[in-house]
Amino acid sequence: SHLQESGLVHQGSLASLKGARLGVDAVFWLRSIQALKDPFADALGGIPPGIFGFVDKELEAFRRNGITPLFVFQGVAPGPQHSLFVSRMDDEVEKAWTYLARGQKSEAQKCFAVSTSRINGDFVYFILHHLKAKGYECIQAPYFVGAQLAHFAQQGAVAAVFGPPGLLLYGVKSVVINIVFQGATFDWVALDSVLAKWQITEDQFVDACMLAGTEYCLTYPYLNLG
Q: What residue stretches are annotated with the XPG-I domain (predicted)?
């Protein structure tokens, strides 16, 4: 990624998070679990097989490392406000089914992966209730997860947050963006490092990211009209 190429991704020892309460963007966390990535599942109306087993392995890894996760799920979020976003996804789905009908499974998989890259609502619902049943603390934000996690961080309710780099837009000083349990390490980015590297103010950073697009805010559509 550009952050890695710019030397803005730092690595830390997982031991430094032992005993910490970690605010987790639940959907971002689910996307990070490689075993759950099945581009055909959403398109065919199903869910990845063995999901709870894969999730439980990740939960056990948190427990083994002494990290207490607080899972935050998205609430009401606005859909795409520009027809460009909707038409692009529809086009990809149509192309995927066309490829599948021709027997071109590899090409179909690529298109399905693009059009259904988000964890679907049913899947999230199952995971939310699974986590609650296992006694994990789960919260559904009123709107975006990012704002809720930023609030928890500012109030000291969590020691750190785990989610996409876009959390920096909410004023979070540092964000854990990847956890490697096998290597006992984690990757993180710091807002101050980003601002210093790019020599911009925080306001300029927010403006630039809102135009370019993030996980929480799609690209300003009129920049892509060509």
A: 136-214
pTM for the structure as a whole = 0.79
Tokens 């969590």 map to which residue?
A: 158
pLDDT tens, position by position, 122-168: 788 889 999 999 999 999 999 889 999 999 999 999 999 999 998 99
Contact 40, 209 (CB under 8 A): no
- Cα 180–chain centre separation: 16
Please give the DSSP secondary-structure letter assigned to residue 15.
Answer: G
Place of tokens 């490697």: 180
Average pLDDT over residues 88-115: 74
pLDDT category, 83, cuts 50, 70, 90?
very low
Angstrom distances, CA of residue 174 to CA of 43, 156, 184, 213 = 35, 13, 19, 19
Q: What is the CATH number of domain 2-35+56-77+125-223?
A: 3.40.50.1010
Query: Cβ distance 21 to 158 under 8 Å?
Result: yes
Q: In sequence order, what are the residues at sequence separation of 6 or more whose Cβ sits closer than 8 angstroms to the Cβ of residue 213?
A: 219, 220
- List beta partners, residue 186: 12, 179
Extents of the domains making up the chain = 2-35+56-77+125-223
Write the single-letter amino acid at 31. R
- 155/118: higher pLDDT: 155
Beta partners for residue 190, in sequence order? 174
Pairing of strands 68-73, 10-13: unpaired
Question: Mean pLDDT for the chain?
Answer: 84
> How many residues does the structure list for the chain?
226
